[in-house]
Amino acid sequence: MSWRVMPRALRCPEMGLRKDRSPEEIVRELKRRARHGGPTALRSGSNRGDWLYAAAVKHFGSWKKAVEDTGHRYADIAIRPYTAQEVKQRIRAIAAAGERTLASREKRLSAAASRLFGSWKAALEAAGCADRYLIWPKTRVIETIHRRESLGLDLNTMAVLRDDRFLYRAARLRFGNWAIAFKAALGRKPVRVNPASRPKKVHSAKKIRH
Hints:
Elements: H1 23-37, H2 44-47, H3 51-60, H4 63-68, H5 74-77, H6 84-96, H7 107-117, H8 120-126, H9 138-150, H10 157-163, H11 165-175, H12 178-186
Helix pairs in contact: 1-3, 6-7, 7-8, 9-11, 9-12, 11-12
């Protein structure tokens, strides 16, 4: 965050006017920012690129040492790494929201997962989310289609998209598209639904628990 976009309350009135600052001035400004923005305002990422960051490193050797000279423990305000429990909770929250649990979309979480569990896949398994559509085998897709049919639920594309996004995505991932997955499971093509024939109000079918 540069000083130009920093919240006004955290800006120093003389910011940028003097190139050199004394250690006392640096500590005084650090304390002022902590008063206005709380201790987390002293995280390095919030100040990198600012005059204060450069001055602190110059006089104290590092940003951490400058912050600790104000009486704060830097370990208490730095961004804390995920614990194993937090990694599992975050993965479960992503899956519960129906989002794709892709390592490439959660880089910080993915790094923690690899550090704590050995791999992203292992973290998914530890979180109980390894059987989501990302790694569903074809047999799982077919079994779920059979279950929908046995319950009398609609099996047209729109109904499945509405009721069970995981099934639909797994079908596309494993078979290429919904029609091929449907035929593989039931030996026939899905019935196309004419949009004009649909009722105006559609009540969602009860979702199947996977």
